[in-house]
Amino acid sequence: MPSANAAARAQGPYENVVVRQRSMFRQIVDRLVRNRSAMIGFCILMTIVVLCLLAPVIAPEGYNAQNLLEKFLTPSLRHPCGTDNLGRDVFARILYGGRVSLFIGFASTLFAAAVGIVIGLFAGFSGGAADNIAMRFMDVLMSIPAILLAITIAAALGTGVSSAIFAIGISSIPIFARLTRAPIIQLKNEEYVEAARSINAGRLRIMFGHLLPNIMSPLIVQVTVNVALSILLAAGLSFLGMGVQPPSPEWGAIITSAMVYIIDHSYLVTMPGIAISLTVIALNLFGDGLRDCLDPRLKI
Amino acid sequence: MSENILSVRNLTVKYISRETGVCHAVNDVSLDVKKGETIGLVGETGAGKTTIALSILRLLPMPPARIVSGEIYLQGEDLLKMPEGGMRGIRGGRISMIFQDPMTALNPIDRVGDQISEMIKLHLDLNNAQAAGKAAEMLEMVGIPSTRFNDYPHQFSGGMKQRVIIAIALACRPELLLADEPTTALDVTIQAQVLNMMKGLKNELGTSMVLITHDLGVVAETCDRVAVVYAGEIVEIGTADAVFEKKSHPYTVGLFNSLPDITGERKRLLPIAGLMPDPTALPEGCKFSPRCPACGEACTKGPVGLRLESGTHFVRCLKAGQ
Amino acid sequence: MARYVVKRLIFMIPVLLGVSFLIFVILFLTPGDPVDVILSGQVTEDVREAWRESRGLNDPFFVQYFNFIGGIVLHGDWGSSFVNGQSVTGDIMLRFPNTFLLACLTTVIACVIGILLGVFTAKHQNTWLDTSFSVVGMVGISMPQFWLGLLLLIWFGLNLKWFPVSGFDGPRYWVLPCVALGVQNAAILLRFTRTSVLECIRQDYVRTARAKGQTESVITWHHIVRNALIPIITTVGTLFGGALGTAMILEQVFSINGLGRLMVEAIAMRNYPVVRASVLILAISYSIIYLVLDLLYAAVDPRIKADFEGQSFFGRGRFFAARAKKTGHFPKGGGAHA
Question: Is residue A7 pLDDT above 60, yes or no?
Answer without folding.
Answer: no
